[in-house]
């Protein structure tokens, strides 16, 4: 069980949704124009709509190139797409540094598709101060580390404080149980005419949401038996979660009119004041404000994920890795970039403060949104103090989230072929939310067989 003793309030770019538009082909690692120089192609550059994040990224590139005169960095706005990623990786058309969700590292490590960066990390003075639970999902059984995380998070219950008030609910006391979620969602729908609670159900995000719910109800999605992964969700916790959604959708009519949603749909509607609650991380505050123009940001509230039956809260992050196909020279440069761009800003108080100051210069930016700690508690406290002058979010609205983190059991996403599992579970979520007569037991039995067949085929 992971116990987080402190949270960190650091500046960072918008967390990318699990799926996005398809990536265009990137050029292979190539030489720069100068003698002995190289050009490093890296994912992680924010979209043009994120002006503060883009300015921060460009400054980071300039600082890195100044410190490493033989390396030129070319940023890419390409993002992870589960439909095309594996093919691009196999064809060696991805960048020298790739950005993937936490569902992917274990598969990429097992398949030998990414490079270990253990040596470079261990040579860094502060390697031993990493939170070991942050590195564990990025490591193999022998302790070799293959990536650096950015903005790790724990999922929670995001809610609209204004709609809580309009429904006669206390915005400082959001739900702490699933029964309370159901009751409050019904009250919001009845009193305001808005959706009390909305779940994502497409683009693999339905499976992701069902994983959050399964964990929260004390269940599992997959397990390892005899050295191989098999599905583990055809049991009471997942059934209880789905039956809760079914009751909210069809008995309470508290989930709104639109049921085929991805994260973009949900956060956009939330930003417009149309949704009372959804499952997400505090990082969606940035999406709501910076990408979807949420003007009433004082209405954004964040609470811990309700638990049931010894449940756990799903944790995740974006992860930066180096493909195995990258040559040694570019791989060495890539490791330097990972430490400079993602490890150092999360550790160094001066760098963290400079990033926060850069972001705070843009009135549309969000500085201080809580994340999970990358380093030990002592360092995280120093980082929080360093960026305090630039924090521009109302931290009291995140207190129901941050004050409960220490008591939560945190679990990462499924280790093996999570995206393929999510794709199957999407169909289950969609059926429950769109078909009043959907039979949960039958849906899960069919999904169980389908996932086991997929996992078996991929482990031959």
From TrEMBL:
- Does Signal show up as a keyword for this record? yes
Q: Does the keyword Signal apply?
A: yes
One Pfam family assigned to this protein is SBP_bac_1
State the InterPro entries in the record.
Answer: Bact_solute-bd_prot1, SBP
Q: Where is this region: Disordered?
A: 22-49
Which residues belong to the signal peptide in this entry? 1-20
Q: What is this protein called?
A: Extracellular solute-binding protein
């Amino acid at each position: 069980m992971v116990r987080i003793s402190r949270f960190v309030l650091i500046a960072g770019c918008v967390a990318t949704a699990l799926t996005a538009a398809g990536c265009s082909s990137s050029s292979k690692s190539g030489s720069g124009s100068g003698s002995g120089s190289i050009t490093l192609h890296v994912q992680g550059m924010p979209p043009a709509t994120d002006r503060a994040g883009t300015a921060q990224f460009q400054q980071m590139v300039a600082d890195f190139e100044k410190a490493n005169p033989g390396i030129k960095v070319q940023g890419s706005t390409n993002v992870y797409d589960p439909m095309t990623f594996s093919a691009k990786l196999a064809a060696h058309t991805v960048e020298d540094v790739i950005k993937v969700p936490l569902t992917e590292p274990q598969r990429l490590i097992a398949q030998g598709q990414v490079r270990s960066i253990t040596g470079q990390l261990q040579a860094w003075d502060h390697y031993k101060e990493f939170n070991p639970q942050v590195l564990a999902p990025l490591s193999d059984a022998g302790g070799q580390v293959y990536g650096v995380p950015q903005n790790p998070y724990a999922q929670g219950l995001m809610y609209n404080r204004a709609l809580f008030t309009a429904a006669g609910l206390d915005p400082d006391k959001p739900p702490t149980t699933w029964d309370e979620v159901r009751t409050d969602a019904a009250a919001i729908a009845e009193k305001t005419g808005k959706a009390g609670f909305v779940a994502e159900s497409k683009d693999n995000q339905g499976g992701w949401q069902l994983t959050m719910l399964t964990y929260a109800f004390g269940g599992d999605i997959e397990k390892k038996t005899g050295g191989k992964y098999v599905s583990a969700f055809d049991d009471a916790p997942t059934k209880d979660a789905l039956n809760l959604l079914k009751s909210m959708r069809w008995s309470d009519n508290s989930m709104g009119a639109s049921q085929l949603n991805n994260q973009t749909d949900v956060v956009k509607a939330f930003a417009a004041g149309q949704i009372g609650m959804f499952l997400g991380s505090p990082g969606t505050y940035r999406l709501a404000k910076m990408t979807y123009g949420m003007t009433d940001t004082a209405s954004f509230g964040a609470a811990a994920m309700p638990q049931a039956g010894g449940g756990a809260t799903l944790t995740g992050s974006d992860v930066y890795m180096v493909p195995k196909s990258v040559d040694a020279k570019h791989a060495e440069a890539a490791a330097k970039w990972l430490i400079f761009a993602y490890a150092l800003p999360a550790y160094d108080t001066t760098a963290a403060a400079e990033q926060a100051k850069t972001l705070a210069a843009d009135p549309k930016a969000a500085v201080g949104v809580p994340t999970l700690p990358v380093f030990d508690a002592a360092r995280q406290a120093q980082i929080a103090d360093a960026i305090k002058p630039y924090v521009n979010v109302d931290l009291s609205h995140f207190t129901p989230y941050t004050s409960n983190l220490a008591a939560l059991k945190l679990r990462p996403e499924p280790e093996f072929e999570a995206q393929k599992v999510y794709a199957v579970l999407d169909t289950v979520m969609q059926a429950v939310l769109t078909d009043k007569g959907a039979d949960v037991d039958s849906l899960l039995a069919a999904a169980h067989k389908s996932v086991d067949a997929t996992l078996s085929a991929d482990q031959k």
